[in-house]
Amino acid sequence: MASVVQWIQGTRPRTLPNSIAPVIVGAAAAHHIDEFKPVYTALALLVSVALQIGVNYANDYSDGIRGTDDNRVGPFRLTGSGAAEPSKVRLAAFISLGIGALAGLALVALSGYWWMIAFGAVCIAGAWFYTGGKRPYGYAGLGEIAVFVFFGPAAVLGTLYVQTGEITGIGIGASIAMGSISAAVLVANNLRDIPTDAVSGKRTLAVVLGDKDTRRLYLALVAVPFLIALGMTVRVPYALLGFLAAPVLLPAVRRVAAGRGGRDLIPVLQFTGIAMLAWAVLVSAGLFLD
């Protein structure tokens, strides 16, 4: 029987900045046009984090029963390690996704934008079918695109729109920044797993591109938020605060650029996630100060 600590590990805490950072920036974009609503933001954050945990448990379950995690190099997995029964991991995924769905319904009821129920349903389906179902899109090299969409435009602009009823240029720029660096987290994860994924038949984008081009893709993606911050200064000079996140990212960039592999790439996910959260907080501070 898996311990409480192992179940917490199963949520993949190092990936949670992917769900927290976009909501912070979306809320700041709403504040920038004087439409910030704390309760709406709290519900949006609950939706985002619950769906993130749900997709992490779902991936643990689906990859585990397929045998993808049998010889993995990365962090602990509940199903692949045999610490938890697959059915219980699947139930944890459903409970997490259900909590996200309920929080989403509450948010829709408050805002009155009932069409966003369909938007939420697409997000939940995207979470499950990433590695679930007969033809998971994560096994077809589409994972990075999905992460960009769901943790970029969907999360940032969804948080912004539900509070304001509109989409702004600042919001669009921030959503591209968040989507890019979120995708970079997955690229780093898949870069580490190229050898085992190739053997197990998991055809990720990293497997398709190969080691060298995957590293180039990572470096390009993590540069995007800083280019966006620079562009934002035309309207929000304080957006330059985002560059203070660069030192946090530097250790990850060095490891990837130096050709490190295997377990040496595990910290890259953590550094990239922290840098993402730092960028979101710093740029949001700039939006609040403007």
From TrEMBL:
<feature type="transmembrane region" description="Helical">
    <location>
        <begin position="113"/>
        <end position="130"/>
    </location>
</feature>
<keyword id="KW-1133">Transmembrane helix</keyword>
<dbReference type="GO" id="GO:0046428">
    <property type="term" value="F:1,4-dihydroxy-2-naphthoate polyprenyltransferase activity"/>
</dbReference>
<keyword id="KW-0472">Membrane</keyword>
<dbReference type="InterPro" id="IPR026046">
    <property type="entry name" value="UBIAD1"/>
</dbReference>
<feature type="transmembrane region" description="Helical">
    <location>
        <begin position="89"/>
        <end position="107"/>
    </location>
</feature>
<protein>
    <recommendedName>
        <fullName>1,4-dihydroxy-2-naphthoate octaprenyltransferase</fullName>
        <ecNumber>2.5.1.74</ecNumber>
    </recommendedName>
</protein>
<feature type="transmembrane region" description="Helical">
    <location>
        <begin position="167"/>
        <end position="188"/>
    </location>
</feature>
<feature type="transmembrane region" description="Helical">
    <location>
        <begin position="269"/>
        <end position="289"/>
    </location>
</feature>
<keyword id="KW-1003">Cell membrane</keyword>
<keyword id="KW-0812">Transmembrane</keyword>
<dbReference type="InterPro" id="IPR044878">
    <property type="entry name" value="UbiA_sf"/>
</dbReference>
<feature type="transmembrane region" description="Helical">
    <location>
        <begin position="217"/>
        <end position="234"/>
    </location>
</feature>
<dbReference type="InterPro" id="IPR000537">
    <property type="entry name" value="UbiA_prenyltransferase"/>
</dbReference>
<feature type="transmembrane region" description="Helical">
    <location>
        <begin position="137"/>
        <end position="161"/>
    </location>
</feature>
<dbReference type="Pfam" id="PF01040">
    <property type="entry name" value="UbiA"/>
</dbReference>
<comment type="pathway">
    <text>Quinol/quinone metabolism; menaquinone biosynthesis; menaquinol from 1,4-dihydroxy-2-naphthoate: step 1/2.</text>
</comment>
<keyword id="KW-0474">Menaquinone biosynthesis</keyword>
<keyword id="KW-0808">Transferase</keyword>
<comment type="similarity">
    <text>Belongs to the MenA family. Type 1 subfamily.</text>
</comment>
<comment type="function">
    <text>Conversion of 1,4-dihydroxy-2-naphthoate (DHNA) to demethylmenaquinone (DMK).</text>
</comment>
<dbReference type="InterPro" id="IPR004657">
    <property type="entry name" value="MenA"/>
</dbReference>
